[in-house]
Inverse folding.
């Protein structure tokens, strides 16, 4: 672990501390957040995610990722019976869910390496969502990014996005018990 | 897991599109695997590099994608067609089978980058096909 990578951007209020003081400060705040499962983005990866999220048509790409997850992994439709079989990106039910997902991702992108989805996670468990679904949607998001950016979606950017969606999935799973 | 006739058509179509590009696609997919899941590099300690320009990565990626294209020509007898490779992975190479699942996702994303398009229908067919390959390759371990 490199301490500068564990401290999220918000922790850079430590800028006036010596390296040792900074490290101690990060260690104290990090130990509360870090678990075996948690994946951490580097500064470079974090800035790529912030950049890409500001560039894409958020509602469009999210709706498309949802259409794709419903098509490729049909078991993900389990708790969406109210959508009455209408799972295309342009269908109203998918659009409505996409809007909610976009709001959550807006928060996630602003809080990379420190995403607090404790309540959202509880809500998903109460609804009965299998946490595997979050990984499935992460994968279809990656495919949508690949389709949009083609070769510009380099291995390093692909890896950054993979880590980001893994972190989101972990945060959404964090309250399950 | 059963491939429908529609699935098979999609798979044949994709195989046709990629059969002349297995080096480029294979190297890219493998490089992405090494970047996203660095633990997969442990199976290739002799490689001098792990990016898509490395000759060893290109050679191995080509081998993998040629095998995928070949398998597309045997959709009705995949277990038999893949038996030798399954034995090799299960008794000799001993690659953790979870890696086939990780690699499958990356192969799909690589196709999305290099093919003109990847509709949900094609994506589903390819995903099912790769899942079956992974299942067969995992079948001789224990």
């Amino acid at each position: 672990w490199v301490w500068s990578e564990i401290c999220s951007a918000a922790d850079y209020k430590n800028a006036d501390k010596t390296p040792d003081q900074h490290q101690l400060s990060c260690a104290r705040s990090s130990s509360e957040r870090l678990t075996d499962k948690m994946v951490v983005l580097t500064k470079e990866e974090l800035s790529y995610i912030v950049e890409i999220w500001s560039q894409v048509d958020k509602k469009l790409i999210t709706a498309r990722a949802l259409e794709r997850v419903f098509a490729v992994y049909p078991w993900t439709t389990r708790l969406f019976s109210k959508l009455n079989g209408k799972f295309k990106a342009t269908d109203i039910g998918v659009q409505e869910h996409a809007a909610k997902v976009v709001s959550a991702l807006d928060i996630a992108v602003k809080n990379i390496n420190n995403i607090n989805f404790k309540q959202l996670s509880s809500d998903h468990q109460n609804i009965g969502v299998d946490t595997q679904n979050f990984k499935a949607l992460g994968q279809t998001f990656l495919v949508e990014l690949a389709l949009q950016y083609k070769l510009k979606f380099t291995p390093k950017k692909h890896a950054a996005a993979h880590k980001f969606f893994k972190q989101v999935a972990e945060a959404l799973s964090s309250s399950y018990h | 897991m059963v491939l429908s006739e529609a699935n098979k058509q999609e798979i044949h179509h994709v195989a046709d599109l990629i059969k002349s590009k297995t080096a480029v696609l294979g190297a890219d997919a493998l490089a992405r695997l090494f970047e996203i899941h660095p633990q997969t590099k442990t199976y290739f300690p002799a490689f001098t590099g792990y990016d898509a320009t490395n000759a060893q990565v290109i050679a191995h990626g080509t081998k993998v994608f040629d095998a995928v294209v070949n398998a597309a020509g045997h959709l009705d007898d995949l277990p038999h067609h893949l038996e030798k490779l399954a034995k090799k992975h299960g008794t000799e190479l001993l690659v953790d089978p979870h890696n086939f699942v990780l690699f499958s996702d990356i192969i799909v994303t690589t196709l999305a980058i290099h093919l003109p398009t990847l509709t949900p229908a094609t994506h589903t067919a390819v995903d099912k096909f790769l899942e079956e390959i992974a299942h067969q390759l995992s079948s001789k371990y224990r």
Q: What stands out?
A: Residues 21 and 94 of chain A are 48 Å apart (CA to CA). Chain A touches chain B through 17 residues (CB under 8 Å).
